[in-house]
Amino acid sequence: MISLKGIAVLIVSFIASWAATKALIPLLKKRGMLDIPNARSSHEAPIPRGGGLGIICGLMVGTITARVLGMPLPGDELLIGALLIALVGFVDDRFGLLSVAARLALQLAAAGLVVYRSGGLARFPLPEPLDVYLGGLAVPAALLWIIGVTNFYNFLDGIDGFAALQGIVVGLAVGSLNQSGGLFTVIGFTVAGACAGFLIHNWHPAKVFMGDVGSGTLGFLLAALPFQMEPAFRGQTVFLIAICLWFFLSDGVFTILRRLIRGEKVWNAHRSHLYQRLVKTGLRHDQVVLKVTSAAAVLAVLAVISSRLGERSAWWSVVVAAVGSFLAYYGWTWSRERLFTRADQSRLSGTQG
């Protein structure tokens, strides 16, 4: 049952994020924090970036509200780590001076703080019988998970509204679990409210972009959240969040592997994620976002139901649904590209004729 306190946190986070983002837009323009379109961009005009500061504001006000209402708060390590990631993101949004190595080192420091205080990932995050004991790999697995999700969330923030709407979906799913004495309600609803307030300004056509300061912080918070729980439940919670973020994580892993096979430098900017390829076939940002995030919402609901049932068969049903949904996502992309290529060839033939 969702508490009135949880709803209050969600509403306050929403209002604070909406108001802060609205105030930030002219300031970002004045400071010259603009995302200038290039060959790899999915937008055509300069748009202010760094609007994720509005999300940070919503998260902070929501957390303060939770404290006033006597709700549980995350550990200091999570808050300090998130602030470090936000600072790294803002510096990169503002100056663009950080190298890939520097960003990874600072992300490792933030993730390392969380893992140092709470321990690693004791079991592999899959249902029985694949939830094997990780032993000496517990800490590396935890660090890889947190840093990986932090970066994937950033990679998938490439079209209007995508990362913000995904944040609402996973935030509501996490918040509805009410685990760890209500801590998940606080974090989940704060994230959902802050993303919703930002989304009003970020919906297609976007007036502002989230930037690294927003996407990196959201990814870090969601990835590090399971480490606020007892070790016995972390694998299950990591699995739940992975399912809620399935289209971000699966697209990210698939695209990296595809680029590695092709011998491309995976750290270079590109437009080869599935969602970007769909936009290149002529779909609007909002068309792609609504379809993909609707499927993500269905998976999130199934994951929450399975978590409450606690049965192995239910968890494996979610795995099957997730794999099937990614195959459908890829199939949709592939078929759209085929049709788009044929249409281009027909237009070219008609011009030559």
What low-confidence regions span 5 or more consecutive residues with pLDDT below 50?
Answer: none
Distance between the termini: 66 Å
Gross morphology is globular
Total strands: the figure is 2
Query: SSE order, as H and E?
Result: HEEHHHHHHHHHHHH
Please indicate the percent range of residues in DSSP E strands (runs of 2 or more).
under 5%
**Alpha carbon gyration radius:** 20 Å
Give the number of helices. Answer: 13
Mean pLDDT: 91
Tell me the strand order in the biggest sheet. 1-2
Helix content: over 70%
Query: How many independent structural domains?
Result: 1
Largest sheet: 2 strands, antiparallel
Decide which structural class fits the backbone.
mainly alpha
Short structural description:
The protein has helices spanning 4-30, 52-68, 76-95, 100-118, 138-155, 162-177, 183-202, 211-224, 231-244, 246-261, 274-280, 285-309, 312-352, and strands at 34-35, 47-48. It has 353 residues and is mainly α.
Describe it.
This protein is mainly alpha-helical. It has one domain. Helices cover 72% and strands 1% of the residues. The protein has 13 helices and two strands. A two-stranded antiparallel sheet has the order 1-2. Helix 1 (4-30) runs parallel beside helix 7 (183-202), helix 2 (52-68) packs antiparallel against helix 7 (183-202) and helix 3 packs antiparallel against helix 8 (211-224).
Summarize the SSE layout with pairings.
Layout: H1 4-30, E1 34-35, E2 47-48, H2 52-68, H3 76-95, H4 100-118, H5 138-155, H6 162-177, H7 183-202, H8 211-224, H9 231-244, H10 246-261, H11 274-280, H12 285-309, H13 312-352
Antiparallel strand pairs: 1-2
Helix pairs in contact: 1-2, 1-7, 2-7, 2-8, 3-4, 3-8, 4-5, 5-8, 5-10, 6-7, 6-12, 9-12, 11-13, 12-13
